[in-house]
Amino acid sequence: MTTLIKGTTLPNGSRADLAIEHGVFVDAAGVTADRTIDASGLIALPGLVDLHTHLREPGFEQSETVLTGTRAAAAGGYTAVFAMANTQPVQDTAGVVEQVQALGERAGYATVRPIGAVTVGLKGERLAEIGAMAASRAQVRVFSDDGMCVHDPLLMRRALEYVSTFGGVVAQHAQDPRLTEDAQMNEGVVSARLGLAGWPAVAEESIIARDVLLAEHVGARLHVCHVSTAGAVEVIRWAKARGIRVTAEATPHHLLLTEELAEGYDARFKVNPPLRTAEDVEALRAGLADGTIDIVATDHAPHPAEAKECAWGEAANGMVGLESALSVVHAAMVDTGLLGWADVARVMSRTPARIGGLRGYGDAFALGTPAHLALYDPAAHTTFSADSLHGRSTNSPYLGRELPGRVVHVFHGGVATVLDGELRPAEEVSR
Amino acid sequence: MRHLLSTAELTRQQALAILDTAEDMADVSGREIKKLPTLRGRTIVNLFFEDSTRTRISFEVAAKRLSADVINFSAKGSSVSKGESLKDTAQTLQAMGADGVVIRHPASGAPHTLAHAGWIDAGVVNAGDGTHEHPTQALLDAFTIRRRLHGAGSRGRDLDGVAVTIVGDILHSRVARSNIWLLALLGAKVRLVAPATLLPVGIGDWPVEAGFDLDAAVGERPDVLMMLRVQGERMHDAFFPGEREYSREWGLTDERLARLPASTMVMHPGPMNRGLEISAAAADSPASTVLDQVANGVSVRMSVLYHLLAGEES
After folding, report:
1. Is B109 in contact with A311 (Cβ distance < 8 A)?
2. Assessment of whether the complete model's pTM goes beyond 0.90
3. Cβ contact A195–B205 (<8 Å)
4. ipTM of the complex
5. Catalytic site residue A363?
6. What pLDDT is attached to residue B74?
7. Fold classified for A48-361
8. Which residues pair with B288 in a beta bridge?
9. Testing the interface with B: which of A182, A184, A186, A193 to mutate, by most B Cβ within 10 A?
10. What is the dihedral of CA A43, A46, A51, A56, to 10 degrees?
11. Which of A28, A45, A347, B247 is spaced 20 to 30 Å from A228 by Cα?
12. Number of domains in chain B
């Protein structure tokens, strides 16, 4: 199968034809195409890479599976996702990470790269078998207890050092557990009025400050998950200026939504870290624009309906985000003039791939490289609805909201996963 | 008015209408036959996910004096404690044809969710949700203040210029939140006194003055001193070092009581910790309105149920 994509707009703004054959990009000049896609008006982005996805399998298949989660990923323009370790059993052994990797390979919608737990059972007590996971068929390079913070300072120091032995990185969920006991939303004017226990910004910022200093001391890399506060952006900016090897991610929802959404006690807006203030959103956008924040990662966190249809304090934290991420970045960063499409390609594909040690995303569309590609219509507008979602859960904060843009075609390793805005059937994509 | 979820949602006119109707209801309670036919044939469910015998009984008496049928649905020993969700409980009440639901819940916002999630058509009264609000308590407090100040001439009056000092655990107090919005709406000057640990972060835009010094506040000779209940377990969470220090710094002791003018009302939402936030002498003094508050609670709750369910107001 040879696919010719005619007249697409590259991230740098130039027009080009792209051709795909045997899973790789080939010279478009003179190919005999089996399938021709008119891509005029569509932006060609390298396949998006999500460094922070919860696929929920094994253990929470009522929320999501590797298959349904990667279908959601493909629908959002993603061709690779890093699957967080808080499954049941936890991804803290070679066996579990290899299982998740294999499920991803079978499904075919996106490359699934398992993240290994830092500590056994995410309990924060002793190191998981990091070496075994790194040496397994899954070749784990990112380690995280996400959902839980590696809060013990000595254990965090050891984790940073030990993971560096295998060329990996610790992705820290920065949340001081004592400062956030029973926390329900950002601590501030809204929490004071609503009578919901506060999640103070300092609980995030103090852990990040400690961790960048630990990373500096031991000479290790650190990645900070879902940065959500203006103060955290300042700390990371300071650390980078000092030469500390830290990278950081922001989620789409922290780039667009604010804490006032808690006022209706609608638990779709309950997430951890919580939605913050408009000032925090501004600081995150500025940080992403100036490179302090390296990447956008979704923290796609599916939950069944009953975990959200209840009182706020009893509801689960988390939002699904794979299908909406590109449109939200479009609204928050591109329409505001803070990022161009080449920057979007960098923060949503090239840099997350580099942080995660994922090959094949270094040189977008280069001849002979795997054809991971998303074609995006920036002129489209959609009212985001449950029909826009393709995973197993519908806990999106954007339902009913107007969002710009539309993912039209997606290729993962040359295989079409989305054509004309529709997911291709599993039997066509499966390997 | 379809629901009563928060005093922050009330207009001044609505608040005064509730207080004025409560005056009429108080007259009924003074009669030999303490019953009106107003809600005959209507069903009110007291849905209590948290123990509160006082509040439940107050609502039950109020509903029965309006001739409503009352069902008490307590979480203890019911399917609720076996994992049934708020949604399932709500749908059950809907299927049974409840006209009004009075809900007490440990989670802030649960009454709001019950009223707005589309599970139920009944009017919802918040009888205390987590650390959010307890609007009928604030209404009965305002009613009590107004009666003490104006007696039989209370109807139509607001609380313009009345100085109210609320003392204690503002952070965890649903009574304080509801009182702050309602008292400010009615024109009162509200002052909060508490250790910094028990004042929420983010109250800069609240219509109050906040401070730490109870002696200074007593020296201001407030019209009303409202003492909040202190939960003993707060000590273990480092909000304050111990009962003795709390009592010394923020309790209404006999010495502070003696410094207050005789006209100052001493209020407490109950149940009281005598000797902790309030001395026995203060609780039993003529300045204390504690028993008035209990009696007025029935009249105010009759008024609220009337305004929600009798349907004469838009």
Report:
1. yes
2. yes
3. no
4. 0.93
5. no
6. 81
7. TIM Barrel (3.20.20)
8. B266
9. A193
10. 80
11. A45
12. 2
